[in-house]
């Protein structure tokens, strides 16, 4: 329970309509897409950097945990106030401070939705490349906290590639300004990228200077159907080996296709067991040249058919239906987003199937194959204790496999609370200790999102 | 002077042919392209990470300064052993450990030349985008230490955008591994980018996992001649405002053109006072479309003529002659690489001229205008005390101007020893203190490149 004196001090910082302490109101800030529930003891809604400073300073003085939060769309529990205390909702810091097409820059507060950024810059012929599937309703603050990616990362990179500078408030309540306003700059250490992906454990980001990218003129697309996952994975390797590549390259395995068939019975060839959705972008000529290049290498003995898709909406239809379908059949699914080097995908998918069979776990895999980023879903019944136990052991072996293949445990979801136990598989203790000491520097009383990201 | 006991211990770590202590031999490691001279007291040449650990640990125990060094092509003094001690030359760590075109990755040791990386990956249709003018003879270790850019940064970004992971040895002699081998990864803090641009003050980089980019099919080019710098700057703003932009956009002012005329009398139109060299890349169609787009916006009342260049070598001929010409006429020139937002270039160049006039300094400006990155050269006679004094005051005002325009003091050269006094103009004391404390974490005894980067 928060001390009454602390609540009183908090109430002096913000008007009543920007502090929730009623447990019912607080409960709506207790969860994210990890489906875990940790109610905060209070929710605060700052409007300015100065207010964030005041709130953080008060929490720091009183050693009250404070968890920054956007719209709670994360899947790894990064925004959950696991240790209670304050949920710092940035959802009312929604100003787009500057749209500057001449310099290809937009400056915005953390509560602005990714989609709102896109809407603001599209008229000038630009976009901001990070495109998590939550883009319509996730905030740029959350995108920054996780270095969000998405299907187009294969061509455009992830959030960390598209930020010039940040303003933030450290756990000590100090305002820092990182990076610069220009596309080049090497003055001082790169604290911008240190904050990106740090899941609110180092500082509360209160302003971001985002770098814009020219919108591609057009999109084109291909779908390719394969008789098995291994030949499909071989095609992914071939496609990524040619210099002129796709703007998105999504893989769907047999389990994914079964789910889609249940919803769209006539969408897929009957004997298809794996599928690629391939998007290319650029001028009409570029698209034609790129599609021809891809078509020439994606053919192998397992290819059933490959066809061009005129309407890019129909290209994405199957893919977009997938996550909700998975939630329907397995609300407590384990959803990982591991990454392996692209040329190990055939081996990875093969061994993954063996592990799922060995542990008797229903397993559905799909994702951003061009980056080697596969969403591995273990569909379990939460009430089946034995199945839960098997899933845990299976997951542990999947992570070992990923590391053995020189991959990484998370490509875009982050660690949050979900994956922290597994971090030592990937990061050696020396490097991890250094990271923890950086955390101490920024947040000496461990109030910012305590317990997250580290094992 | 190094203690004899220390030299003896060092001699136990490396064979005699990999330790220099003779002052004559050490002197060849005393300078870089800043033309300052600071001889080390010993030079060591490790071959492995383990040897770097042993050397750093020994220096750390004995609190002996240690300055990592590639080929000494930097212009900011970053590789100079200003406080004496050891020069750690990485020039013999020259293995390209892995060329992996399927995953678009190359793994290499820090002493490998930038050009050698290009040669190794070109047969597979890839390149590594950082292209400092020293690329033929600068090391990737040095490129990483400064987050080197170059003319193509306007399209491809700088070093920090093209690195997946690093291995390094901290000032405490501990080996850390940062980042990952895949194009996506969000596990732990981004120490990769923290090391990039840190000028050897945090860790000695001993291995780098570099991300490759597909080689463009072709290059095309344009030159555009203007009657004055302001109309030329307006054209730069217009060109960078259109979505499909150049792969390089270099600006040369009247002073630069005078120098070129002295060498190539017939190269330029007589009344030309400013010039753009514009490169575009892609397929033939893309090049044509991009050139047409640029031609349509680069015309303004100050344009004398714009012409396509068939041979890209001739495009770069004038630009490449420039730096040596400047050295010939002013060996002690002050060479800055400030950056301003692109749309402030007209104002910047205008005020720059006013300042040069006011302080009676010969001033030549050129550079990577697409990034707003201008190399400002103050051509001074080192023996003229009054001129030196005026140049210093002029430079101070130039930096104030840059900051007022929301720019940055260095785009690609780094701070080294040359610019450290000016850092507080750009970085506030809170942020700077945090950076210094990060330095302390990595290097508790301040042995790694001591005195650099910070004011």
UniProtKB/TrEMBL annotation, chains A, B:
Gene3D superfamilies membership: 3.30.465.10, 3.30.70.2740, Vanillyl-alcohol Oxidase, Chain A, domain 4 (1.10.45.10)
A single MF term (Gene Ontology): oxidoreductase activity
InterPro entries (alphabetical): FAD-bd_oxidored_4_C, FAD-bd_PCMH, FAD-bd_PCMH-like_sf, FAD-bd_PCMH_sub2, FAD-linked_Oxase-like_C, FAD-linked_OxidoTrans_Type4, Oxid_FAD_bind_N, Vanillyl_alc_oxidase_C-sub2
SUPFAM superfamilies the UniProt entry points to: FAD-binding/transporter-associated domain-like, FAD-linked oxidases, C-terminal domain
Keyword Protease set for record: no
Cofactor: FAD
Parts of the chain that traverse the membrane: none
Domain FAD-binding PCMH-type residues, every copy: 36-215
Keyword terms, alphabetized: FAD, Flavoprotein, Oxidoreductase
Family under the similarity heading: Belongs to the FAD-binding oxidoreductase/transferase type 4 family.
The protein, known as: D-lactate dehydrogenase
Organism: Nitrosomonas communis
């Amino acid at each position: 329970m928060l001390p009454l004196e602390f609540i009183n001090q908090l109430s002096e910082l913000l008007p009543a309509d920007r502090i929730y302490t009623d447990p019912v109101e607080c409960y709506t800030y207790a969860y994210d897409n990890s489906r875990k529930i940790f109610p905060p003891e209070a929710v605060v809604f700052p409007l300015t950097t100065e207010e964030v400073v005041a709130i953080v300073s008060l929490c720091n003085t009183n050693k009250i945990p404070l968890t920054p939060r956007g719209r709670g769309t994360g899947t790894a529990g990064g925004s959950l106030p696991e240790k209670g205390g304050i949920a710092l909702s940035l959802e009312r810091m929604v100003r787009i401070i500057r749209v500057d097409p001449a310099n290809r820059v937009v400056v915005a507060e953390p509560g602005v939705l990714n989609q709102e950024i896109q809407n603001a810059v599209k008229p000038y012929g630009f976009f901001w490349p990070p495109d998590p599937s939550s883009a319509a309703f996730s905030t740029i603050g959350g995108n920054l906290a996780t270095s969000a990616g998405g299907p187009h990362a294969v061509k455009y990179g992830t959030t960390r590639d598209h930020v010039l500078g940040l303003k933030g408030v450290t756990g000590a309540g100090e305002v820092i300004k990182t990076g610069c306003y220009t596309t080049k700059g090497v003055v001082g250490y790169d604290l911008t990228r240190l904050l990106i992906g740090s899941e609110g454990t180092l500082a509360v980001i209160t302003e971001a200077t985002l770098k814009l990218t020219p919108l591609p003129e057009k999109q084109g697309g291909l779908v390719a159907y394969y008789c098995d996952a291994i030949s499909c994975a071989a095609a992914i390797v071939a496609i990524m080996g040619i210099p002129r590549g796709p703007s998105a390259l999504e893989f769907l395995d047999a389990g994914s296709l079964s789910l889609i068939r249940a919803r769209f019975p006539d969408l897929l060839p009957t004997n298809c067991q794996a599928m690629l959705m391939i998007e290319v972008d650029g001028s009409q000529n570029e698209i034609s040249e790129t599609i021809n290049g891809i078509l020439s290498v994606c053919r192998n003995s397992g290819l059933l058919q490959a066809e061009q898709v005129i309407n890019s909406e129909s290209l994405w239809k199957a893919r977009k239906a997938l996550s909700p379908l998975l939630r329907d059949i397995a609300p407590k699914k384990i959803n990982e987003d591991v990454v392996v080097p692209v040329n190990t995908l055939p081996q990875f998918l093969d061994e993954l199937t063996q592990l799922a069979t060995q542990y008797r776990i229903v397993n559905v895999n799909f994702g951003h194959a061009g980056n080697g980023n596969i969403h591995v879903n273990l569909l379990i019944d939460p009430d089946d204790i034995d199945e839960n136990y098997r899933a845990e052991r299976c997951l542990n072996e999947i992570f070992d496999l990923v590391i053995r293949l020189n991959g990484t445990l998370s490509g875009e979801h982050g660690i949050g609370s979900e994956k922290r136990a597994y971090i030592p598989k990937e990061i050696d203790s020396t490097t991890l200790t250094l990271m923890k000491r950086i955390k101490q520097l920024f947040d000496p009383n461990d109030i910012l999102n305590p317990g997250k990201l580290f094992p």
